[in-house]
Amino acid sequence: MAFPNGIEALDKAFSGIGVDEKSVINIVAKSNDEHKRSLRTGCPKLFTEDDNGFERSDQSYIKNLQHQFNRFRDAVVLSLLHPWERDARLLEEAIKKGPKHYNVIVEIACTRSSDQLLGARKAYHSLFDISIEEHLASHIQATERKLLVALVSAYRYEGPIVKEDVVKSEAQILYDALENADKSNPLGHEDAVMILATRSKPHLQALYQHYSKTYGKTLTQDLEEGILKDTIECLCTPEAYFTRVLEAAVEQDADEESKAALSRVIVTQREVLRKEGYVADKIQDSLSGLYKELMLGLIASGDIKVDDS
Amino acid sequence: MATLTVPSAVPSVSEDCEQLRKAFAGWGTNENLIIDILGHRNAEQRNLIRKTYGETYGEDLLKALNKELTSDFERLVVLWTLDPAERDAHLANEATKRWTSSNQVLVEIACTRSANQLLHARQAYHARFKKSLEEDVAHHTTGDFRKLLLPLVSAYRYEGDEVNMSLAKTEAKLLHEKISDKAYSDDDVVRVFGTRSKAQINATLNHYKNEYGNDIIEDLEADPKDDFLALLRSTVKCLVYPEKYFEEVLRSAINKRGTDEGALTRVVSTRAEFDLKIIADEYQRRNSVPLTRAIVKDTHGDYEKMLLVLAGHEEA
């Protein structure tokens, strides 16, 4: 079989929807040293001439490619899993990875419906032979434990009924917790944690509105970044939360955790994001290759069209 | 094992409804008929009867029972007629409204039911009361009680038999330390009892006894006046040996001067279709008298009859 032009073939294999793995394998397996050298010299993006007489790989670009493949693969896997298993696995991973990932726990516990969260708890039993609350409680020592365990254990009422007088009194309690009580440790304020962990979302959203009207600022305005802020946002203003997370993910100097959020948010929130409409532009500008195609495809109005040509 | 008996040839639902309607008709009520029918139907059958009765006569069967019956008998029949999930939701809701002595009922429901039974109760709670069980518990309890009760009612425990023995060791030691320091409502104590699977807790308590010589219950008896300690003891019993727990509740309810009908009604109506037989056996073992005989001695009338039917007592 004639050896195809390496660069063109690789380019083709790497771009477009779907990795043409066969081509890549073919090229790599069949190239001899001469071929590989010409491949390297013909690909300035990936390789530059080193003073010591060899084509040195551009590490950041290579890493970038690697990440693209990993993220692509991760996003594909996430999309294919049953939502319950998906959420259970995301939770387990977040617990294992530690404090910088606790926002994922908050995100799942607070943005899923009561039955979806319940499903994730059931899947957790099946997958890990332990309950989520048990696992979480034994891994997290700090003040965050109470809030996080309570959030994953909630089975919130989902009806529209909201009691105005309770909304008012609880807005007051939250105000005290955030403004007056031990400000350095709002999570230690038991009543505040109880309210956030047990009340229905309509109730909390009404509370959020009332708070803004009464105290002239939002619940989260003065809060530092952290799980308390995430909790309130996820429960009361989920669109704002997801916007924030997505924007952080596509920033130039985003860290790994922020970038990982992109797949997770787009895969799990695609219905919501489709309606929003602005996300596509951000992805267009900041991503590349297969990964970009997949992300755009997920939030486009139709399903991804597989290129048969 | 259940004590409920259902006849092998069950009348049709419409027959049952007709008979019940007849039982209510006219001056006075035919209580025997009510006992005969409802006392011998399982949850599925009772639900169907309620549904059909409502469709046929335009009246909720429970409302009719409420109207026609009185006192302890009424409460027993109404509670019994509800299906287990609704019954638990009803009892839990009642408990959140009363005093701290009702915290025990919350512990009982949260800890003796299986994970799925507790879940169904939470779902029934949404449907019936338009709010979540945990929000009511959070709102109506305070301090250490709330700290313990909230995780208990929110738990969805793993139900496998797998046990981590080294973890059991670590946690037994932890519990022993906290108890020795009288830190009964410590975060870790609550965490162990609020989240671990029943099998794991059992292993931990076995290790506790092996290592420290005492049953953990004994070490939790330091202050007989401490309500929280009492609740913690109930929690432990409900989680690892519920039949003994229920036997104690019954013994206390029946032998007291003046029967505690509330507790008696609650235990019989909630356990008749699950494990009342085992509880009754435990009662006999502990008191040298069959449960049914104790019931006969301490109660009377229709209330007594219904209790006996639910307890599987054959008519003489």
TrEMBL record, chain A:
Keyword Repeat in annotation: yes
Record keyword Repeat present: yes
Pfam family membership, one: Annexin
Classification via SMART domains: ANX
Protein keywords: Annexin, Repeat
Matches recorded under PANTHER family: ANNEXIN, ANNEXIN D4-LIKE
Name of the protein this chain belongs to: Annexin D4-like
Species name: Hibiscus sabdariffa
UniProtKB/TrEMBL annotation, chain B:
Position of the signal peptide: none
Keywords: Annexin, Calcium, Calcium/phospholipid-binding, Metal-binding, Repeat
Xref: PROSITE patterns: ANNEXIN_1, ANNEXIN_2
InterPro entries: Annexin, Annexin_repeat, Annexin_repeat_CS, Annexin_sf, AnnexinD_plant
Domain notes per entry: A pair of annexin repeats may form one binding site for calcium and phospholipid.
Family: Belongs to the annexin family.
Protein name in the entry: Annexin
